[in-house]
Amino acid sequence: xxxxxxxxxxxxxxxxxxxxxxxxxxxxxxxxxxxxxxxxxxxxxxxxxxxxxxxxxxxxxxxxxxxxxxxxxxxxxxxxxxxxxxxxxxxxxxxxxxxxxxxxxxxxxxxxxxxxxxxxxxxxx
Length: 125
Prior knowledge:
Elements: E1 8-13, H1 16-26, E2 30-35, E3 38-43, E4 47-53, E5 63-68, H2 72-81, E6 90-91, E7 94-95, E8 101-102, E9 106-112, E10 118-124
Parallel strand pairs: 1-4, 5-10
Antiparallel strand pairs: 2-3, 3-4, 6-7, 8-9, 9-10
């Protein structure tokens, strides 16, 4: 069954080169495959993140993917040191403090990539 297999996240990128550089240089991912229409990065063992060239991009501002990490504060410090902007939210039911929201089961933070994909980084409680 599908639940026994890894899943690959595919994000849309209207500017593939900018998104490629963002994930390689700012997020710090290793490129494992690259074509004119997409780039694939290694992420934690058997999972991968793929970028697909798109003429329309993402139309949704919700989280498209999220990393589960063991130390959210350390990961955010590393991302910020690489120039990644961590989003701040002050919405009904969702408020961040120093970029982190407590959502009950986890602490989570978000950044927006050049393709306007909302990406989460979360530490389960």
